[in-house]
């Protein structure tokens, strides 16, 4: 059958008696991979004595129909029940499919293989003939049916038949020029915090409960001095070797089914984020049974024609971690570790110390980035650890050195902390703040932004057949800082902040202090893995759903302002607009608890739990339910002294009396449903 039998990508059709069992994908395939394996025999495992000395790979199901999926399960169930080995012979290649473990979910199966001889044709090229007869639908290459290779397959380093035949250094190269790493970093060129957000997103997708972000000094033997290093450490579920390869390679197949709990979509987040922050990045990740170390480095690849990405993987054996020879040889692991120690500030002892942070049976991922991006003779970022025991304003932070504000149409405010303070940004980054984030060693305190607004109102609409739900309210702090706008979230992550809509764009005072919160996940997900979000996840694409959303938001924001604050009322003495309710989050169960109106949350301790006053309950009590997409943003703005409003009496801009003004407000409330009746006390005229 000639060269047509060698698959151009790692997909394998598994067959028995000339009938297909299931299409599979081969992970860590041999150098030559026949595209069809026809099982010639199934024998008890006890009769095969040479399996431990052979190289191995893995098959995972890639069914094209429910029938394939069913046959895959039946086949593995038979091997498991009979403790037997399936043998497939393809002339010069012989594969042994091992029975899965008893607790296996059949997501993959291990295969060991050997090459008995090489068959050469008259043209001098190697051929590996298939004994089976594939069905008509598999006559062409698999890529004809599936759109070509995925990025994971393109970047895969093939396991050789014998490790000594391939020099270790040749096994670390992806087919990309090293300058591509610098190109990836340009994705977040406009705003460096977008790069940090990519790393935070990965921790959230890994279901981490704690995330530590800090910049500290570390000695670099190559620089001959101490240099700053950014670390991002979480306690998520970690990654196995194949997932680490996918992380450091260039993109992967976009998901066909939308997962509302995941933010990652494009397969480039880690690369674009890490390479924007610095030139070199080291990843240490651990699962219950494995540990991997990966090195993505511009310094290592200077002057090379292809990109080298060293990876060292281990698997647990008893209480110890040993090199995983099922995915790499001992020689390759030794070479990769030597490269990492040479081009990074880490030696084997420091790597061991970092890995020791996981402790026994702990999982998670640690990312270290150094040779940070520069701003002239300084670094783009500046940092401090703050004052121990101080207020939130004195806690450590990481700032953008330029303090430059992001461009927004109609914006006049010069005080937008989240544009250059990572602490302020992290306080509002997630719609549902469950993960505990520590910045420079101190906890980032989260509060739901919409729950701390005054005169909150809700508006529901239908855009292109999809329901949207908006919450609007007034913030005294944002009023003092001349801010306003809508916070737009997608898959629970902040994409745009302070987006001015409607009259806010053309009038600096229109809508002053008005904040909106909306989740647009359903609207901006087009289906089939397509989304209306830029791959940097800092803006939306210019598409019809977004254009209609802007128009709808503008109409609702203008209506809210006209009905409530068009005739702006101020009270002598600088009384503040109090939020409708006070809220506090338990540091154990991470649930939000509503407190009595007017309670001073500043009197609560740094760490507060449900059993404490004034809630005096337990973590088992359900959290107050809020409609999907509404009022679940955490935010705690950096507070400044609020200056008294210099006005003699409570008046409106048109000189209308309070009674006439209140009557106008009552007549104008049509589409927006008020959550709280009447004006707050601070808005009412004193005696």
From TrEMBL:
Superkingdom assignment: Eukaryota
Gene3D superfamilies: 3.30.40.100, Histidine kinase-like ATPase, C-terminal domain
Gene Ontology MF term list: ATP hydrolysis activity; endonuclease activity; zinc ion binding
Location(s), subcellular: Nucleus
Gene Ontology biological-process annotations: chromatin organization; DNA repair; positive regulation of defense response; regulatory ncRNA-mediated gene silencing
Record InterPro entries: HATPase_C_sf, MORC_ATPase, Morc_S5, Znf_CW
Keywords, in A-Z order: Chromatin regulator, Coiled coil, DNA damage, DNA repair, Endonuclease, Hydrolase, Metal-binding, Nuclease, Nucleus, RNA-mediated gene silencing, Zinc, Zinc-finger
UniProt main location, coarse: nucleus
GO CC annotation terms, alphabetical: nucleus
Protein known as: CW-type domain-containing protein
């Amino acid at each position: 059958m000639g060269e047509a039998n060698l698959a151009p990508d790692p997909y394998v059709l598994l067959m028995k008696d000339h009938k297909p069992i299931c299409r599979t994908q081969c992970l860590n395939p041999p150098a030559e991979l026949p595209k069809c394996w026809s099982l010639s025999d199934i024998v008890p495992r006890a009769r095969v004595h040479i399996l431990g000395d052979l190289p191995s790979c893995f098959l995972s199901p890639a069914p094209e129909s429910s029938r394939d999926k069913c046959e895959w399960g039946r086949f593995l169930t038979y091997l498991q029940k009979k403790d037997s080995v399936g043998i497939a012979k393809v002339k010069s290649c012989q594969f042994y499919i091992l029975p899965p473990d008893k607790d296996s979910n059949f997501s993959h199966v291990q295969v060991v293989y050997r090459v008995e001889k090489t068959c050469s044709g008259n043209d001098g090229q190697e051929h590996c003939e298939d004994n089976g007869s594939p069905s008509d639908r598999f006559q062409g290459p698999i890529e004809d049916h599936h759109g070509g290779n995925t990025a994971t397959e393109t970047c895969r380093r093939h396991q050789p038949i014998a490790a000594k035949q391939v020099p270790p250094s040749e096994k670390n190269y992806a087919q990309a020029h090293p300058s591509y790493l610098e190109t990836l970093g340009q994705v977040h060129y406009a705003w460096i915090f977008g790069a940090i957000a990519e790393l935070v997103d990965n921790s959230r997708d890994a279901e981490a409960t704690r995330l530590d972000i800090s910049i500290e000094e570390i000695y670099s033997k190559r620089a001959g001095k101490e240099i700053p290093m950014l670390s991002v450490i979480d306690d998520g579920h970690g990654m196995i070797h194949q997932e680490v390869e996918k992380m450091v390679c260039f993109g992967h197949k976009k998901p066909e089914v939308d997962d509302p709990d995941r933010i990652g979509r494009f397969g480039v987040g880690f690369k674009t984020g890490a390479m924007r922050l610095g030139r070199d990045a080291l990843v240490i990740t651990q699962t219950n049974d494995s540990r991997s170390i990966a090195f993505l480095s511009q310094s290592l690849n200077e002057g090379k024609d292809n990109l080298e990405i060293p990876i060292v993987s281990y698997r647990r054996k008893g209480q110890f971690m040993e090199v995983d020879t099922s995915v790499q040889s001992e020689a390759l692991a030794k070479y990769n570790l030597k490269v990492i120690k040479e081009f990074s500030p880490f030696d084997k002892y420091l790597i061991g110390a970092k890995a020791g942070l996981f402790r026994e049976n702990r999982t998670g991922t640690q990312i270290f980035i150094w040779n940070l991006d520069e701003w002239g003779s300084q670094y783009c970022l500046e940092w401090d650890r703050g004052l121990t025991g101080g207020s939130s304003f004195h806690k450590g932070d990481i700032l953008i050195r330029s303090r430059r504000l992001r461009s927004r149409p109609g914006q006049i405010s010069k005080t937008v902390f989240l544009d250059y303070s990572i602490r302020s940004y992290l306080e509002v980054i997630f719609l549902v703040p469950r993960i505990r984030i520590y910045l420079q060693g101190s906890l980032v305190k989260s509060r739901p932004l919409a729950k701390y607004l005054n005169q909150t109102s809700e508006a529901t609409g239908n855009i292109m057949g999809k329901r949207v739900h908006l919450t609007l309210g007034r913030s005294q702090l944002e009023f003092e800082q001349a801010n306003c706008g809508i916070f737009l979230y997608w898959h629970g992550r902040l994409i745009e902040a302070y987006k001015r809509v409607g009259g806010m764009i053309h009038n600096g005072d229109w809508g002053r202090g008005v904040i909106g919160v909306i989740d647009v996940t359903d609207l901006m997900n087009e289906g089939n893995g397509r989304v209306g979000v830029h791959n940097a996840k800092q803006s939306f694409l210019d598409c019809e759903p977004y254009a209609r959303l802007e128009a709808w938001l503008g109409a609702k924001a203008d209506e809210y302002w006209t009905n409530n604050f068009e005739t702006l009322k101020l009270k002598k003495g600088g009384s503040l607009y109090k939020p409708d309710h006070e809220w506090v989050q338990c540091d154990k169960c991470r649930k939000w608890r509503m407190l009595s109106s007017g309670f001073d949350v500043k009197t609560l301790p740094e760490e507060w739990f449900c059993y404490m006053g004034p809630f005096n309950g337990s973590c088992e009590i359900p959290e107050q339910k809020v409609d999907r997409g509404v009022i679940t943003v955490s935010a705690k703005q950096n507070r400044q002294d609020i200056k008294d409003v210099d006005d003699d009496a409570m008046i409106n801009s048109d000189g209308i009396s309070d009674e006439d003004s209140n009557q106008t407000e009552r007549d104008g409330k049509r589409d927006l449903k008020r959550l709280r009746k009447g004006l707050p006390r601070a808005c009412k005229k004193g005696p």
